[in-house]
Amino acid sequence: MKYPVIKGTSYVLIHTPGLLLQQANLEGLPFSHLLTDQLRSFDSVAGYPPNQAFIGNLFPEDLPQIPRPWYNNSLPNAKRQGLLGEIFPEDEFLGLLHAVDVYGLVCLEAGFKLAVSEKLRSHPALSGLNGIATAQDNGCSHAEIQEIIKAGEALPLTFGGRIIGCIRKAHSSDSTLSASRVLENLTAKASAAAALQLLFRKTGLKPQDVDYIIETSEEACGDLRQKGGGSFAKSIAEACSCSNASGADTRAFCAAPVHALMQGAALVQSGIFENVVVVAGGCSAKLGLNAGIHLAHGMPVLEDLLGAFAFHISKDDGINPIVRTDLIGTMKVGCGDSPQQVYSSLVAEPLTRGGYKILDIDRYAAELVNPEIIEPTGCGDLAQKNYKMIASLAVLRREMDRTGIEEQIQRFGVPGFAPNQGHIPSGVPYIGPARDLILRNKVNQVMIIGKGSLFLGKLTRLYDAVSLIIQRNPKQKASVSI
Amino acid sequence: MLKGKKVIIIGDRDGIPAQSLEECVISAGGEVIYAMTHCYV
Amino acid sequence: MDQENQAQIRALAEKYGDEELIAVLGSADPEMAVIAAETAAGSDPAFVDLFAEAQLGLKSYHIAELKEFIDHQVYLRHMEMMEMVLDIPGIIHEVSTVRKQFFPSEVSV
Fold first, then answer.
1. What is the complex's ipTM, to 2 decimals?
2. Of A19, A199, C73, C86, which one's alpha carbon is 20 to 30 angstroms from that of A277?
């Protein structure tokens, strides 16, 4: 069988303390009075070990060797650029937000806009984005911006604690087009566009060669009568000059990225499209989700980052790792939510189908949220919990003895390192490192697991999970560096 | 212990979710009147 | 626990009273079980200011504490693997401590 391959990946983090405070204000949270300088600086965000792992300057497997708390152990000489991605500061993000807005909803102060446009135009990946290469209007004055905000027509946009712009509502009475919804949606679009531009830069894939884009965030764009109409995918394709591409959105809460990888792989393997991109931007509503708890623990507010990613799936090139489309694991409706039935269906069943055992997998990657962010909430390390279930299932299936559980978790469990952005940590942050390790002959096969809390939408009490296996290309001869 | 009791189920997506708890409680003679599952991320 | 769920539980607690009504938890670790049990008994520590008045007054039991009352086959189907995953002694200790704290007349299961 000719399997599709993962031809390239890109990962983006965006430091957005201003957006975090805006979110806190919107929710009326008690810490919204915090000053910007009580939040992390860009340098401390860049040097934060899990972030360096996210952009590929460190393997997630090496994180446990760095003493906790990681926020007190910044990596020296950390760069914003990484082998697999890049970390962007908030001013560049606001410039991006303006660049991807095609309805004049984002107003930036003229001086700020000029300075940030200059930065974006000189950025090797972002300079090609529509709206950056081509000049837009000249921006607003500070007084104009204040006036729009005061009139209740817009929400402020801040940088370094100063209002430098605003985002307008897109309709006078439709709440699905309120300023806060426009901000959420343009945030998802802008951060996804950054990831896609970076993918082009890192892989050499040309925008005009992209056939289809699947977008997998957790936002909904539309209006009163079609609240989740979409399509983020096509808007991102347009912003990134993918003139030959179409696309659509896939939604399944945090499980969506793995569903989308499966769909993208199927589109390539069937021959419908040659080059498919799976992309997702970040979620502004999840910024500062546990900020109150972090502050109560005397920690910095760690949820100050948007995440985004883009993956290129293409036909077999004899080099890149393959997606085993014949070994997809799902959580069928009838499987219920009993943990051992879920993991049997998700992990053991597809492996058995392929003639593998649980312990044949070199790495499992599930719920890769950075434990330092979520442990203070009392929920423990979610990634490790998943691996404990997988190892325990191996015991139940008599693949190993109970005493080997810890050792196996150490061997196959990818530690959490992703920002707490819902769909972002859901297994897929490891696709980049996995591709690298497989190409360098260090690892043979990896299982990526996505889990989504469908029940939050109140249509079902079910949750969802899906798994796929990425494997060394059988035709790959020598070790290849990415 | 559970027989004749009305039970509120507080499940954990990454622990034991609601439907599993519900089956266990019903098998013990409890009556489930509200069930929810939590997700912490 | 979100405000909506707390409100629902409060309404049920008021309707039935704590003699008839209990909460059964599926928390994955002791710390989370404590938070859930305290929420059901008193108020959510994460929303102390907002919910100071919200005394739900419910006794909580973790599912692992109720093993002997549950049909053995049903229990095995849902819990056999989880017994390897969970810190059951830790969870039982923590949840029963919360019960004793909020309901001093409480005796062990």
1. 0.96
2. A19
